[in-house]
Amino acid sequence: MKRLGKTLVGIFLFVIFLGNSMSEAAPRHLRSVWGNGIQNVDLADAAAALHCSLRQSPSQVTLIQGINRLIFYPDKRYAFFNGIRVNLCYPVLVRRGRLYIGKADCENVLTPFLSPGTLYRHSISRIVLDPGHGGRDQGTIGLHLQEKTVTLNLAKRVAEILRVYGYNVTLTRTRDVWLPLDARSAFANRIKADLFVSIHANAVADHSVHGIETFCMTPEGAASSNNGKPVSKHYPGNRNGLRNFLLAYRVQRTVLKRTGAADSGVKFARFAVLRELNCPGVLIEAGFLSNRKEEANLRNSAYLDNVARGIAAGILNYHRSLAR
User: Mind listing the pLDDT tens digit for each residue in 204-242?
Assistant: First the structure.
């Protein structure tokens, strides 16, 4: 108990420090530099503050905390958390042989992942599942499938699983009807949802591209994964930034485990369905309909069950991790 208390106090002070401007009066053991147009925190110092050991080689830095292994790469805008690709808001900065990560990544990715769940605990009873598109909005179209059909099918399967575990689950649509994007998050806010998961399928011109990716709300002042321009505006969806990332990671990890699909990563985006949410929320792209193999998978009932079980397991793991 004493050790846990010291850990909580250390992380609390660490987060407060990151929230303040990093001036010369700041503690010397937590170094920072200006680069890439932002403030960056020394990765080794951050690891020490979060009670991690650190192993460094010319090609990577690994943070170790219990069973967790987090790998960062010089000048790269991604990392691997226990084997899951995590897209960072900014590239890892190298200065005089030391690695630094953006303040936004330290606050919204590194700290919540390595901190005790009690810091981010919240009630989870009512869950809203959002089948993307619908009605006149077909979404992306493959050779045999329409996105709007895949998403509704998946959402119904996920809802059935979660209800077995006692959750109150509501869908933004239960049939093939069109809903404006802002109505989806507004519905979740109106019924005071505790979690929101929007389900989609992907498509790109290159038919070889495949994999599953899960998005959460881009932190305030940072650039989204698919857009290099930082946005300083604060949205309601930013209030749960720490929880958003934790939920996205849990969902991505369990869906990949259940399906064996390629890992396209945990990413950040300011999607309309995530911007105005009052609760933690994510958007999962469950595969590429432009890829023939993944479209075939999404036509297979057994595979759809695995995707649905993965999404449900991610929600359950998120909930349970906060209680530990």
Answer: 999 999 999 999 999 998 989 987 688 889 999 999 999
At 286, the amino acid letter reads A
- How crowded is residue 294: how many other Cβ atoms within 10 Å of its Cβ? 26
pLDDT tens, residue by residue, 37-61:
889 999 999 999 999 999 999 899 9
- State the Cα–Cα distance between residues 242 and 291, nearest whole angstrom: 33
Nearest CA to 235 among 310, 187, 182, 173?
A: 182
Cα–Cα distance for residue pair 2/187, rounded to 1 Å:
44
Cα distance between the two ends of the chain: 13
Starting at the edge strand that comes first in sequence, how are the strands of the sheet with 61-65 ordered?
A: 53-56, 61-65, 68-72, 78-81, 84-87, 263-269, 212-217, 281-288, 195-202, 126-131, 168-171
Retrieve residue 228's tokens: 């290099």
Backbone angles phi, psi at 280, to 5 degrees: -60, 140
Task: Look at residues 285, 244, 122 and name the one whose alpha carbon lies nearest to residue 192.
Answer: 122
User: For the chain, which residues make up each domain, given as ranges?
Assistant: 2-115, 122-323
Sign of CA dihedral 15, 244, 221, 210: positive
Pick 2-115's CATH classification: 2.40.50.140, 3.40.50.720, 3.30.457.10, 3.50.30.10: 3.30.457.10
CATH 3.40.630.40 fits 122-323, yes or no: yes
What b-and-e string marks burial along 97-111, b requiring 16 or more CB atoms within 10 Å of the CB? eebbbbbbbbbbbbb
Residue 131: name the closest of 251, 235, 267, 286 by CA.
Answer: 286
